[in-house]
């Protein structure tokens, strides 16, 4: 999952609204709670590539009480257990693989709103369950995925390697859609503020391996596995995460290290730009959606009084007022989630410290140092990134190609949720041209 496109609005808090309103969405809402609706849409979108089934998610959505975090947990945990049991009972490797993928997705979803109490053991038990089911599923892929651990400076980095669909039939070869090779282009991807690397397999991994490229995911400090297992929050020097991963890829005989691509999703865009500006071993960079400063967005959406406390450096007042809003019984789910996730992923117990740390994460001072072609995506209905996607492309300069995905064809949401095939078509067609040497930079396109 990615960072939600809606954090909160000042009107919701200053007006002391007792419940979330349904905003003017371009997609059908799955809950009267805006945050629940968005995350349900994220889970539903995994149906495109084995990560969910529409009927299962829609049934859960119908049973969840809007705004009730325990209700959310109960429905998705129940669903995960039932689908996992179906996988256990099947003798078909295909049925097992599909069931375990879906169960893993539902276990991840079940824990999404539990971070308000970081002592809750379910934060860890649900994660262990999703890891177990995901491991069983990738082992049943036609070309099984591999999980390994790479050593970083003061932490370890969990990495998945998914080999390309390397069977190059005569018909595919004649059409130029695959190339026989032992060393293949490799896309290296991370998610962002809250997303897991496992879900990246569903949102983009299958599209990549089907094109004859290797797909690699990783997580660093602040992200789900490293935060849980090693207790480390986000670090701005993201090259300390990426560089060891690339070092590892250079030891493999199935990776064409002249055709490495670094990819970032949502908040991962900022991390990716910073890393790619320091590590020069990438042939291209892809950013979905363009984001250059998350702190700016949060401050624009927070109520005036909170912003004043923050800008004055009044940590005591900022923390007290944030806690008062949180405990008022009137705070929207998106407000609760974004601050819960912030404390957790930055490993702090101070709301002020979380938001202050977030100011260290920007692409300013790094974007202009990118010297390879960069694809920047934007969504016409992405109210999180707002105007930051085209501005990100402008900051990168002549190496950037910006593409606006349109809501009128269902692709305008944050990270093109629910329209991943449209994203893959446009972004990977562009990438194929880049890797083939037909580089087009400083362009703006629409679908």
TrEMBL record:
SUPFAM superfamilies: alpha/beta-Hydrolases. This is 2,6-dihydropseudooxynicotine hydrolase.
